[in-house]
Amino acid sequence: MIDEMIRCKDLTASNEIESLHEWFYKCPPQGKVKHWKDGRSAKETAKHWAHTIPQPFKDLLVSKQLKYMLCSPEYVSTFDTNGGNGRNHDLLILAKDKDSKKVVISIESKVDESFGDTVAKTIASAKKAKDKNNKSKASERVNELREGLFGERNDNQLDLRYQLLTAVAGTIAEAKKQGANSAYFLVQTFVSDEINDNKHKQNQKDLNDFLSVFTKENYSKIENKDLLGPFKIETNNEYLSSDIDLWIGKYEIEI
Which stretches in the chain have pLDDT values below 50? Predict the structure, then answer.
């Protein structure tokens, strides 16, 4: 099958990315040169996606019979009205299913980089931000996100990694924006002999913990080559929708 997917900036087909140099120049990672290194997720993503579609990704979604249309690195999706940073997708892909309906795919790339701070630490940071600037809406963002994804706020959410909340919210929000009924949040992990095994295991635990809370313990583990779902949230607002089928998947690429 010929890869006809267009790599481009901000899902703009006319602003094509045709090389690793253009990938970095047009859509640099947040840490720019600091994060652009062989063996790290940003550059490995570019190396594996700039000219082809990785086989483990295709294998994971083969049963969905998708046609991949556009792919944009470092694409940002807004998921609430509180300002601040949106969801920064390592890759955001627009596709069509066999019935020509739109599909949104968000990819989070990891080697052994963490999923960031916990919800508890994010709440503490939001409180400090509020103390310094009364106009800060960081606390509102965390609270609304917890309620939007889980339907409530409780203590079992506090040890979850906040990046996973924003990732799923951003995936659903982008699906609603694009008029898609199906969305996929996929964790793409690059593995090698040089990977920090302890950090890799921590990421696996963090992903499992999020899945357990998000699915109300219907699922408590996700492994390589798993695609779980569909799931639905109960929230409907300007950005989030209960009508979208969300799938959560994981695959590994050896480097």
Answer: 1
Q: Is 22 part of a structural domain of the chain?
A: yes
pLDDT score, position 2: 56
Number of structural domains (the chain) is 1
The range of the structural domain enclosing residue 61 comes to: 6-117+164-254
Phi, psi of 206, deg, nearest 5: -65, -40
Whether omega for the bond prior to residue 230 falls within 30 degrees of 0, making it cis, is: yes
In degrees, to the nearest 5, what angle opens at C-alpha 123 toward C-alphas 242 and 74? 60
* CB 171, CB 104: distance < 8 Å: yes
The residue to which tokens 């253009």 are assigned: 22
Retrieve residue 49's tokens. Answer: 């996606």
pTM: 0.96
Whole-angstrom distance, CA of residue 116 vs CA of residue 133:
23
Tell me, yes or no, whether 132 lies in a domain. Answer: no
Which three-class secondary structure state does DSSP give residue 216?
coil
- First and final C-alpha spacing in the chain: 24
Whether 17 and 81 have beta carbons less than 8 Å apart is answered as no
What pLDDT does 68 receive?
A: 97
Q: Tell me how far apart the alpha carbons of residues 161 and 249 are, in angstroms, rounded to a whole number.
A: 17
pLDDT at 194: 84
Per DSSP bridges, beta strands 102-110 and 182-191 are parallel
